Amino acid sequence: MSAEDLPQSLLRLPPLREVIARHGLAAKKSLGQNFLLDGNLLDRIARVPGPLAGQTVYEVGPGPGGLTRALLRAGARVIAVERDDRTLPALAELAEAAEGRLTVISADAMAIDAEAVAGQGAHIVANLPYNIGTALLTGWMGGEAWPPWWASLTLMFQKEVAERLVAAPGGGAYGRLSVLAQWRTTAKIAFTVPPRAFVPSPKVESAVVHLVPMPPLSLARPAALSALTAAAFGQRRKMLRASLKSLPGALEAMIAEGVNPEARAETVDVAAFARAAARLEQRR
Predict the structure, then answer these.
(1) Residue 153's beta-bridge partner residues?
(2) Are 67 and 48 spatial neighbours (Cβ–Cβ below 8 Å)?
(3) Domain 3-213 matches domain 222-283 at the CATH topology level
(4) Which of 10, 144, 253, 259 could be stapled to 279 by a disulfide with Cβ–Cβ 3.0 to 4.6 Å?
(5) Is residue 108 a contact partner of residue 83, using CB atoms and an 8 Å limit?
């Protein structure tokens, strides 16, 4: 969407730093908050999902509304969920300026039915609070229905978590989260973000990850793959013949897929885990 098509009230918004100061919005460590203020960086995040004009975006933890502004500038209709009541007056001002294209829901994102409020085909774009980011992601990826209700995920994580999502077998970053993400999405790191970009600055680098649904690598149910990977990676230094003892039939399913029982979980590719999970479920 061009600047000419945007509401003039949106273009006249005061700088984010001014909004934060006026409303006393110091980031709360207990809520995992780190605010992004760089408009160019925020616009870059909003471009990752592709054209958003006319699209619905579901955002978690908008804080003072920096990323929300960028999404609105991109032409999206935004549904933002925020549990920090302190930010609501600032978000209300932004909603007024957006002229009907921003809906703010005061709620805990962990307790809300995102599909019900955002609807089919929405894009999820968020600078996720660090303390709930992984839990939200696994929930969005773990639904029984596939393709899911969301069209794409564009999420900010600690760089370490982002690297786990996209890791290939054989490396230290490859683990359960890698398998759960890559089983039925394409996952890539769009770009990294240095600590100095945030207020306050975290101690670690961050990264924006983009995930798009794809046909699953097997017809296993999410619960079966979750149980298999939990057992396999729960004792990742052990061979599979030892780590899978806690899950009846799991080792046999892996062997049937050609996996060496003396291998460690970090050497087994995503497709083999997915097929073994389907086989394990059939045996039950």
Answers:
(1) 124, 211
(2) no
(3) no
(4) 253
(5) yes
Query: Which sequence spans correspond to the domains of the chain?
Result: 3-213, 222-283
| Amino acid identity at 1 | M
Q: How many residues does the chain have?
A: 284
Residues 8-33 as b/e (b if ≥16 CB within 10 A, e otherwise) read eebeebeebeebbeebebebeeebeb
Phi, psi (degrees; rounded to nearest 5) at 22: -65, -35
Element (H or E) spanning 273, and its range?
helix 270-283
pTM for this entry: 0.94
b/e sequence 216-242, b meaning 16+ C-beta within 10 Å: bbbebebebbbbbbebbbebeeeebee
Domain 222-283, architecture per CATH: Orthogonal Bundle (1.10)
CA nearest to 236, candidates 270, 263, 269, 271: 263
- The torsion angles phi and psi of 115, rounded to 5 degrees, stand at -60, -40
Tokens representing residue 157 in the block: 């994580």
Pairing between β-strand 35-36 and β-strand 198-199 as defined by DSSP bridges: antiparallel
Q: How far apart are CA 277 and CA 75, in angstroms?
A: 41
Which CATH topology does 3-213 take?
Rossmann fold (3.40.50)
Non-local (6+) Cβ contacts of 272 within 8 A are 254, 257, 258, 259
pLDDT tens, residue by residue, 218-246 = 999 999 999 999 999 998 889 999 999 99
